[in-house]
Design goal:
The protein has 272 residues and is mainly α. The chain has one domain. It contains 10 helices and 2 strands; from the N terminus they run αααααββααααα.
């Protein structure tokens, strides 16, 4: 299968579901391009970073990206992504795939349950209309002008959350959108649309950090292959954002949840 087509598929998933591009990318790169596990995880981070950056550029004038919490969380994650990548160099391919499989199943179950419990949020992906949520007991609060109040509890929650996402990103080649969006909504009064938009900035920085760490540990890096996958990812992201407002929803989220588990299972069997 063409590397460009695989990139388009990854970008479409990012655009249509709002997260999970790397969960789809890693199995595709292993199964259809025959890449080693660590190389697939490194390239997945690159295409997710590029596709997410495309989404950030689309939203710079929308006021949906909250840069203060986003950059704090992203920079924390960027520091820990190399740690996860360093640890991955000591693990064999089977161990990494098993870890990836476990994470995929956990995310798929959460995605299925969340789509059923909150169907109105299933249509808020890379494109969607802003809606509000009721504030709960918050770790991060906004002042009267809507700016984040960076108090100790808020800073600590963003740093810890970012560190965990960054570590998993470097270790398993995942962008982390599946953790970032609920984290932002849990610790603040951020609505789903702003959380998804802000997650694009965070995913871009963390994924880029993870990819750079992978690149520095790699030999004979294939830039041509990366270019093909990334170009396809940008095309897919564009198509996904243009069509998500029409087809995104509960059914699509559930189909994606099942699909990533199926592909991860096939990849695990393929490794053995």
């Amino acid at each position: 299968m063409s590397a460009v087509i695989i990139g388009i598929a990854i970008g479409l998933v990012l655009g249509l579901t709002g997260a999970g591009g790397s969960l789809f990318a890693v199995p595709l790169l292993i199964l259809f391009l025959g890449l080693p596990v660590q190389e697939a995880m490194g390239l997945a981070l690159a295409v997710v970073a590029a596709s997410s950056l495309f989404g950030v550029l689309q939203r710079l004038k929308s006021n949906l990206i909250l840069f203060t919490p986003g950059l704090l969380l992203a920079l924390s994650g960027a520091l820990f992504a190399p740690v996860g990548n360093w640890l991955a160099t000591f693990l064999d391919s089977n161990t990494l795939i098993i870890g990836f499989m476990i994470l995929t199943v956990i995310i798929a179950i959460r995605m299925w349950r969340h789509a059923s419990a909150h169907p109105e949020e299933a249509v808020i992906v890379r494109a969607g209309q802003e809606e509000t949520i009721e504030p709960a007991e918050l770790l991060c609060k906004s002042g009267h002008k809507g700016k984040f109040e960076l108090k100790p509890r808020c800073i600590a929650s963003l740093v810890i959350g970012g560190s965990i996402v960054g570590f998993l990103s470097g270790l398993l080649g995942v962008g982390g959108g599946f953790l970032i969006v609920p984290l932002l909504m849990y610790i603040s009064q951020m609505n789903i649309n702003k959380a998804v938009s802000t997650s694009l900035l965070i995913i871009t920085i963390i994924s880029l950090s993870g990819f750079i760490s992978y690149y520095l540990h790699s030999e004979n890096f294939n830039w041509l292959l990366l270019g093909k996958i990334v170009s396809g990812g940008l095309i897919g992201m564009y198509l996904g954002t243009k069509t998500s407002a029409y087809i995104a929803g509960v059914r699509l989220q559930k189909i994606f949840a099942v699909t990533i588990v199926v592909f991860s299972t096939i990849t695990l069997v393929h490794q053995y």
